[in-house]
C-alpha cells in the first residue's frame, strides 16, 4: 500500500480521535486548555506509542505540522458545536479512530514483516493508547479495561487483516478490516453488548 494512502488514514484517525477527545473533555467541563490537551492526548497518544513500539525514531507527531493543525481544527469544531446531541457523533468518531489506527498500524506491520503476535500487539496498543491516556487524564477507568467491546474490536480487525492481506487486493483487505473494527464497535454500542464481567463473591464475607 502506498505511503500516501497510509498518511491519509493516519490523518483521518487523528481527526476522529481528536474530535472524540475534545467532546469528552467538554462533557467533563474542562477549560479551553484542558480540551486541547485531551484532544491531543487522544489523537496522538496511540500514534506516539506506535512509533516507539515500531522503532521509527522520533515519533512523527513531533515533526508533523499537518497533524497538529488537524487536532486544532477538530478541537475548535467540537467547541463550536458543543451539545449533548452530538454524543452519537462522538461515539462514531471514536469508533472511526479506533478502526483507522488499528488497521493503519497493521498495514505498516505487515509491510515490515511482522508476525501475528507482533501485529496484534502493535495494532491494539496503537488503537487504544490515546484513549487510555485520555481516560487517565479524566480520572476514569480506561474504557479498554471496562466491559465494553473496544480493544477486542481492534484485535479482531487486526487478525482479519493478517489473514486476508496476503491473499487479496491490499486496498480491499484494508477496507474490509476497517469495516470489521468499526462494525463490531458500533454494533456492540447500539446493541448494548458487553464483555462478561467477573464479580467478586462477597457472600462469605457478609456472613
TrEMBL record:
<keyword id="KW-1003">Cell membrane</keyword>
<feature type="domain" description="Glycine transporter">
    <location>
        <begin position="92"/>
        <end position="165"/>
    </location>
</feature>
<feature type="transmembrane region" description="Helical">
    <location>
        <begin position="6"/>
        <end position="25"/>
    </location>
</feature>
<feature type="transmembrane region" description="Helical">
    <location>
        <begin position="61"/>
        <end position="79"/>
    </location>
</feature>
<feature type="transmembrane region" description="Helical">
    <location>
        <begin position="171"/>
        <end position="190"/>
    </location>
</feature>
<keyword id="KW-0472">Membrane</keyword>
<keyword id="KW-0812">Transmembrane</keyword>
<feature type="transmembrane region" description="Helical">
    <location>
        <begin position="116"/>
        <end position="137"/>
    </location>
</feature>
<feature type="transmembrane region" description="Helical">
    <location>
        <begin position="32"/>
        <end position="49"/>
    </location>
</feature>
<protein>
    <submittedName>
        <fullName>Trimeric intracellular cation channel family protein</fullName>
    </submittedName>
</protein>
<feature type="transmembrane region" description="Helical">
    <location>
        <begin position="149"/>
        <end position="165"/>
    </location>
</feature>
<dbReference type="InterPro" id="IPR005115">
    <property type="entry name" value="Gly_transporter"/>
</dbReference>
<comment type="similarity">
    <text>Belongs to the UPF0126 family.</text>
</comment>
<dbReference type="Pfam" id="PF03458">
    <property type="entry name" value="Gly_transporter"/>
</dbReference>
<feature type="domain" description="Glycine transporter">
    <location>
        <begin position="8"/>
        <end position="80"/>
    </location>
</feature>
<keyword id="KW-1133">Transmembrane helix</keyword>
Amino acid at each position: 500500500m502506498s505511503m500516501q494512502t497510509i498518511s491519509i488514514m493516519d490523518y483521518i484517525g487523528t481527526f476522529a480521535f481528536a474530535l472524540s477527545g475534545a467532546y469528552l473533555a467538554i462533557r467533563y467541563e474542562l477549560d479551553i486548555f484542558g480540551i486541547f490537551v485531551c484532544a491531543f492526548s487522544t489523537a496522538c497518544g496511540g500514534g506516539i506509542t506506535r512509533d516507539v513500539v515500531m522503532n521509527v525514531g522520533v515519533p512523527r507527531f513531533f515533526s508533523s505540522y499537518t497533524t497538529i493543525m488537524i487536532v486544532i481544527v477538530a478541537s475548535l469544531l467540537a467547541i463550536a458545536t458543543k451539545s449533548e446531541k452530538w454524543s452519537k457523533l462522538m461515539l462514531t468518531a471514536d469508533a472511526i479512530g479506533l478502526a483507522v489506527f488499528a488497521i493503519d498500524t497493521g498495514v505498516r506491520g505487515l509491510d515490515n514483516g511482522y508476525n501475528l503476535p507482533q501485529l496484534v500487539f502493535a495494532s491494539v496498543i496503537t488503537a487504544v493508547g490515546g484513549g487510555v491516556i485520555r481516560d487517565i487524564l479524566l480520572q476514569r477507568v480506561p474504557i479498554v479495561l471496562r466491559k465494553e467491546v473496544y480493544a477486542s474490536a481492534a484485535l479482531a480487525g487486526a487478525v482479519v487483516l493478517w489473514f486476508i492481506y496476503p491473499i487479496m487486493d491490499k486496498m480491499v483487505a484494508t477496507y474490509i478490516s476497517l469495516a470489521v473494527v468499526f462494525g463490531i464497535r458500533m454494533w456492540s454500542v447500539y446493541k448494548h453488548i458487553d464483555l462478561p464481567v467477573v464479580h467478586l463473591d462477597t457472600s462469605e464475607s457478609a456472613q
